[in-house]
Design brief:
By secondary structure, this protein is mainly α. It has one domain: 434 Repressor (Amino-terminal Domain). The protein is built from four helices and no strands. The radius of gyration is 10 Å and the shape is globular.
Length: 57
Amino acid sequence: MNTILELRRAAGMTQKAFAEYFGIPKRTIEQWEGNQRECKEYIIELMKYKLENENLI
């Protein structure tokens, strides 16, 4: 899982639920998934770490 979209789908969350879970505006998630805005690799890794440690993926 190397993208926000892959992480979100693996967690079985909607964009809204994913945004609320991480405290990020839904619009930011939309922009990351639509390649309108770049998400830094370290952010993806931190999100993946949190999801794994809370047994969501």
